[in-house]
Amino acid sequence: MTIYSVYIINKGGGLIYQYDNNVPKIEVEKTFSYPLELTLKIHDEKVVVAFGQRDGIKVGHVVLAVNGLPVNGRQLEDGQDVMELLNNDDKYPLNIKFGRPKLSKNEEIMFAGMFHSLFAISVQLSPVPHSTGIQMLETDTFKLCCSQTLTGIKFVVLSDPRQVGQDSFLKKLYEIYADYALKNPFYSIDMPINCELFDVNLQQALEQADKITVG
Amino acid sequence: MFDLNEMVMAQEVLVMPPYSGELFTLTYGALVSQLLKDYENDAEVNKQLDKMGYNIGIRLIEDFLARSNAGRCNDFRETADAIAKVGFKMFLGIVPVVTNWSASGDEFSLLLENNPLTDFVELPEGHSSLNYSNILCGVLRGALEMVEMEVAVWFVQDQLKGDNLTEIRLKFIKRL
Amino acid sequence: MTIYTLYIFDRNGTCRHYSEWNRKNQSGLSIDEECKLMYGMLSSLKSFVGRMSPVDQKESFHSYRTNKYKLHFYETPSGLQFVMTTDLNVGNITDILQQMYCNIYLEYVVKNPFCSREEAVKSELFKTKLDEYVRGLPIFATKLS
Predict the structure, then answer these.
(1) Where are the transmembrane segments (chain B) (predicted)?
(2) Quick one: fold of C3-135?
């Protein structure tokens, strides 16, 4: 089974654990001459492709590097402004690396909180009584499965959209949480999980889950 | 992204209702000539035609999307193809040539060999700045605005004014 | 199988149409507030899904399910959103929502020159056609308690 990542959210909506298992890396490098046939914009302090999809560079990709120099937000490592550089025809040809941006730690925390609220709203908007929140979210590129324990902890797994059988993995995850986080006397409840045994066992469970579809 | 072949095939199944094309051309002609009587100068008439076109465009886009099964364009070249090969074909029965791209890929021209709006039309004297088919510019602008694209559209050449071809130019301004 | 509710939103978040068939639970909000909450949730879900997706996306999410109901979502490139809630036995109904857009919304709202583009659709013809269409769907079960 292809599991992309695992999130654990406490009952207040705080992210207490996140692990990327198998997130594909999407990067495209190309040499451009002036003018650039792509429309770029600044979004969330990043230089993002707004329009003009070509050669594997998709709308939503960010500029990761220019001429081999990594980009940090809106600036190159040496302090040059990326937009200024790309608008300057003297500097061309330029080799630019584009890619799908990875989630930052802050974004992970923000999206965990967002999911927590979405979960609550989906309960309120239920057309039938006694509904839980979102248990499964289906998109064309991934499937999100969530199980909430009676104590309010949410386990969230992102996997391949065609994948089935996440329920047993979520159950396993709950067991690992109970065994290696909660039973550890030095783990404080609702706080981020920093337990080595937990990590090891989670990885084992993920490896096992990966094998299931292979076999 | 959309698959052009799929779209072209899809629209061939959907045959346009059998209204008379001439009635359409005549109706449009009557409209323009009435506007020329109601407004003082050509510039104002151009503006009114553009406005009407805009109001058509913001509705027509839904018809286009529903019948062509098109997805969102992520590149202006896709947009150009969708307009020429699907949109014009679907609503006017012609396929303009997409050409004269700007270097940065944000501007192109549509070349029309025969414009169904101008059948039977002879421009009267003293209306050299009238863009008779200006409604098309408004339609394109309105339709694209509804799919979150701001563009500028204008006439470059017009067969009614003695040019060999009719040329409409589109410039991408921004994603809304 | 059964259908509970249908919401149609335009790109500005205005609820152009709401109808319910076998709804058994109210949100405790006025219909206006409920629509706002629904639209807000959908916008957040869209941005959530767009950013969480491990690979590049063409479309956003098409459904979510809880233990009691399923919500189906279809959005046109022009930003019209068709949202239907059903019970859990209903599969992927994107094509049904698309049909609703092509055959009903387009014909009776977009092509009706007197339908305002900013507010809820008042056309009775549209409402009747839509209701007929939904009641005629195989997923609209007839025998209900």
Answers:
(1) none
(2) Beta-Lactamase (3.30.450)
Is A25 or C88 the better-scoring residue by pLDDT? C88
Cβ–Cβ under 8 Å, residues A10 and A18: no
Domain ranges within chain A, ordered by starting residue: 3-23+104-210, 27-99
Q: State pTM to two decimals.
A: 0.85
Please give the Cα distance from A66 to B73 (Å, whole number). Answer: 27
The pLDDT value recorded for residue C119 is: 86
Interface of chain A toward chain B, CB-CB under 8 angstroms: 35-37, 39, 41, 50-54, 58-59
- What is the per-residue pLDDT across A97-146, written as a single tens digit (0 to 9) for each? 999 888 889 999 999 999 999 999 999 999 999 999 999 999 999 999 99
CATH of domain A3-23+104-210: 3.30.450.70
For chain B, which chains pass the contact test of at least 3 CB pairs under 8 Å?
Answer: A, C
Size of interface B-C (CB pairs under 8 A): 33
Q: Identify the three-state secondary structure at position C67.
A: coil
Asked if A137 contacts C77 with a C-beta cutoff of 8 angstroms, the reply is no
Picking from A111, A123, A132, the nearest residue to C52 by CB comes out as A111
DSSP class of residue A54 equals B
Is the Cβ pair C76, B62 closer than 8 Å?
yes
Chains near C (3 or more Cβ pairs under 8 Å): A, B
As a whole number of angstroms, the distance between CA C131 and CA C115 comes to 18
Q: A4 to chain C: nearest residue by CA? A: C54
Average pLDDT, chain A: 90
CA distance A137 to A148: 14
Q: What is the ipTM of this complex?
A: 0.90
CATH number among 3.40.190.10, 2.30.42.40, 2.60.200.40, 2.60.40.10, domain A27-99: 2.30.42.40
Distance of alpha carbon A164 from alpha carbon A166, whole angstroms: 6
| B67-91 tens-digit pLDDT | 887 888 889 999 999 999 999 999 9
Model pLDDT, residue A77:
87
Our CA-based measurement puts residue C112 at a distance from the nearest CA of chain B, in whole angstroms, of 10
Per-residue pLDDT for B2 more than 60? no
